[in-house]
């Protein structure tokens, strides 16, 4: 198992500092996400300021872009990092694609499958000098003049990871990809019973082996130097977790809803974060004392940073065959 880190940087200058710190600590891969900032730009900075750590997107929104543009970004980052880049793609949801990005929506799994095949066709044309001739239902790419061809790379094989929640996307990861980004809001039972079996279906379809696909499992981490900082981090986690009521239901967490008495914009979503903090403290305390802890509904997806909690979390994820684990937290 590899231990990665996901950063939520606020500036490119901060990204440089965080990337160098992550490498110095010994993390295996540094991941960026597409939330308040572009996911690719920090990795360009990191590629030039680090030597060993892997660099990847977790994730970049595929349907907000086109295959050729993404192919260029990935090709340049692979060159700058000397082969350390991993391209993580996700579909987002219809409302965001149409209303936030102003782009058309289509069947997610089928369209993402074609997106990946199209960008690989572009990469192949650049690497071999062959003709670009990709014709699909959603993308048609038939023009690549030498002036627009960046030329071959010494390390042209760029791993593609995709975000997956439901069966069809998990199967696509098994069929075509080198990795799968598990949604940060998950449980270890969900990994065992939903993710891994559907990935295996895709692997069987393509005649591939389980070791051909890595599972990258981000987890929410509540950390801080004081009780006040931990409470603040818990409130932030609660705001994020409450964005996903449908995932709460799928994991049996329907009772962890936002407190309706509190204003939406002034901490009303902190209830779930406080619940996570309290649960994990009880869980860690039981482990330290040797008692059998009560069932923790958030175990496997939210953890307080500490020896007992971290040890339990990593052990549980290892049992589910997770290949990469990445803590997500502002202070991580």
The rounded distance between the terminal residues' Cα atoms is 19 Å
Series of secondary-structure elements, N-terminal to C-terminal = EEHEHEEHEHHEEEHEHEHHHEHE
Low-confidence sequence ranges: 255-273, 276-307
* Mean pLDDT, all residues: 82
CATH architecture: Alpha-Beta Barrel
CATH class: Alpha Beta
What fold name goes in the CATH topology slot?
TIM Barrel
Classified in CATH, the superfamily is: Luciferase-like domain
The SS-based structural class is alpha/beta
Largest sheet: number of strands, sense, barrel closure: 11 strands, parallel
Taken together, the total number of domains comes to: 1
Helix-residue proportion: 40-55%
Number of strands: 13
Number of helices: 11
Output the radius of gyration. 20 Å
Overall, the morphology is globular
- Beta-strand share of residues: 15-25%
